[in-house]
Amino acid sequence: MNDMSQTATGNPSVSIQDLDLSFGAVKVLQGLNLDIAEGEFLVLLGSSGCGKSTLLNCIAGLLDVSDGQIWIKGKNVTWAEPSDRGIGMVFQSYALYPQMTVKGNLSFGLKNARVPKDEIERRVARAAEVLQIEPLLDRKPGALSGGQRQRVAIGRALVRDVDVFLFDEPLSNLDAKLRADLRVELKRLHNQLQNTMIYVTHDQVEAMTLADRIAIMKGGEIMQLGSPDEIYNRPRNRYVADFIGSPSMNFMDGHLENGVFSTDELRMPMDGYEFTARQPGGPAILGIRPEHVVTGELVSGAPVQHEVTVDLVEPMGSDTLVWAKLGEQIFRIRMDGQSRVKPGETMVIGLDPSRASLFDAGTEDRL
Amino acid sequence: MANPATLGATGAAMDASRGQMSSDHHRGPRPKKALSRRNIMLYGVLIVVSLYYLLPLYVMIVTSLKGMPEIRMGNVFGPPLEVTFEPWAKAWSQACTGINCDGLSRGFFNSVQILIPSVLMSIAVASVSGYALSMWKFRGSEVFFTILLMGAFIPYQVMIYPVVLLLRNMGLFGSLSGLVLVHTVFGMPILVLLFRNYFASLPVELFKAARVDGAGFWQIFFRIMAPMSLPIFVVAMILQVTGIWNDFLFGVIYTRPDQYPMTVQLNNIVNSVQGVKEYNVNMAATLLTGLVPLTVYFVSGKLFVRGIAAGAVKG
Ligand SMILES: Nc1ncnc2c1ncn2[C@@H]1O[C@H](COP(=O)(O)OP(=O)(O)OP(=O)(O)O)[C@@H](O)[C@H]1O
Ligand SMILES: [Mg+2]
């Protein structure tokens, strides 16, 4: 039966069913369900300690699960050895074997699997070519730069010809520039190989740029699973809304009645906003992203206009972050880098209800 | 009203900054006084302490190179008037214990026969145990480790007689293999602790990566962990070589006289009551016995320090 229902939705490459994991009395993951499609790039995103690495280690078989099942490629691998699961893993600290050359590192797993010699040669050569590490093959990891080491670590997963790649914050030890470069390379690699990839990070930019789908985790649970666009534009609850986006979303406490959101300062008819339920009302929280606030000439076109006082200006080159006061409330506004505003000035901003988010003040779920 | 006060304060500040003018040329590292009181104290203490340790060694060396007539003259600190290696030769091959007269050489070869298998076995067993305890945590591994550690705190004296019984039941009492077994077992607590802590300081991700790569228990140990652990192997070797070579108690209890290790042989030579006391031979014998640990220290001292440091940094 189970098999039938899976084929109906397209056989998932990795399927996690009711997964529990606890370290002694500490429950890290509870009843977690997740299906990852063939060739999908899934990013697990969440703050530190929310259980991302733990989940990845469970999938890899490096931690014994307390309950639940893990299926990879239609096989139940819950009790299988890590090497028999058809996965390759890349670690944050590279974890290259320091006493072996790059070539030794790449071929170690293949030798363990008793792959014939010429086949090993062929696969190592191919991985080295894809990752452009051919000149480094005879060096020891100690003689490589951080970026080169991470490439070798990726190569080690690559040569194993596996269906699923697991990445645990592979880029977080690199400097910003290199991180951006390797990020693009990873994306290209995924386009080329079309493997399933599960990628753990707490860098939003990585998540947004790489992912087909993002799973936002908090306290061992998945808060929202969806495309980057969905997560950014239609966050399911206040936590996700706050977590995604930098600078983060502005929140205002108020009241929703007959489709109009109001605070002491502001009255905002929510025309064009897609409510999830039919006629919600009562205490609510309005969320507006700093980059969705319009200023200058564009204000006249905005459905809602309001006056604010500039409090602080942070020029960042490409754009300028303005901390303004809307009544008593601090309000972040992202403006063009060339705009000249000074603290103390007043200006008029325009808000668009169709790009805002509304949350219930009690449950903090999206309305 | 507050103005004059503020002015006064600024004036004082300016005066102070003018006073610091003379330090304007200061640049680069601050010069250090070579003969500061601190340095005199430090080097003074170091010199006194090293004299305290080196003087007896000096006396032993010069005495072992003198003939008996010269020793009887009584100048303990004087260098030998006539250097002779006779005492060394005698200590090695002719000195008498109460039982036989073939010198220390017999004890030396006994000690070597005890030392080599004991060191190899104890390090082999301890390194694998330490690796298993740190990487492959099994149910009860912590309890096991705690019990093992407690072994390090039980006084040897308590265990001497039970071990005699045990060895006798196993038919190993009085044989070299029995002593080897005793040395191996008694070395376990401290060695396992040493290895476990070292392996625990290696990155876990390395172990995880190897498991994903399909390596098993022994492959991970031999191909990945052991090659990274040379310093700690050297530390363990030095501890065991010196410990086992210098052992007296177990040697005297668990072996028969013709298998006594060098330390016991030395004791019997020095304390033998027949004939005159040959101080020069005794000194030479003592130096000969101490030569092995000394060589080990000299050869591997640098590695030893590095190993200790490596263990300490990541604790
Ligand atoms: N071996 C362990 N024993 C007990 N608790 C653990 C163990 N490993 C992890 N934890 C706990 O499980 C929780 C999840 O840890 P995990 O490493 O999965 O976090 P993470 O989401 O990967 O965080 P980060 O982004 O910092 O890597 C944490 O609260 C952590 O303290
Ligand atoms: Mg982590």
From TrEMBL, chain A:
Superkingdom: Bacteria
Query: Which Pfam families does its entry note?
Result: ABC_tran (PF00005), OB_MalK (PF17912)
What GO molecular function terms would the record report?
ABC-type transporter activity; ATP binding; ATP hydrolysis activity
Residue stretches making up the ABC transporter domain: 14-244
Which keywords does the record carry? Answer: ATP-binding, Nucleotide-binding, Transport
| Gene3D superfamilies linked to this entry | 2.40.50.100, Nucleic acid-binding proteins, P-loop containing nucleotide triphosphate hydrolases
Gene Ontology biological process terms in this record: carbohydrate transport
Taken from the UniProt entry, a GO cellular component term is: ATP-binding cassette (ABC) transporter complex, substrate-binding subunit-containing
| PANTHER family membership | MALTODEXTRIN IMPORT ATP-BINDING PROTEIN MSMX, OSMOPROTECTIVE COMPOUNDS UPTAKE ATP-BINDING PROTEIN GGTA
Which protein family is named in the record? Belongs to the ABC transporter superfamily.
User: Which NCBIfam families does this UniProt record tie to the protein?
Assistant: PRK11650.1
Stated name of the protein: Carbohydrate ABC transporter ATP-binding protein (CUT1 family)
Organism phylogeny: Bacteria, Pseudomonadati, Pseudomonadota, Alphaproteobacteria, Rhodobacterales
Automatic annotation (TrEMBL), chain B:
Species of the source: Pseudoroseicyclus aestuarii
Record protein name field: Carbohydrate ABC transporter membrane protein 2 (CUT1 family)
| Keyword Protease tagged | no
Spans traversing the lipid bilayer = 40-61, 114-136, 143-164, 176-199, 220-245, 281-299
Name the membrane topology term: Multi-pass membrane protein
Please give the PROSITE patterns that the UniProt record associates with this protein.
ABC_TM1 (PS50928)
Which InterPro entries does this entry report, sorted A to Z?
MetI-like, MetI-like_sf
Q: Does the keyword Cell cycle apply?
A: no
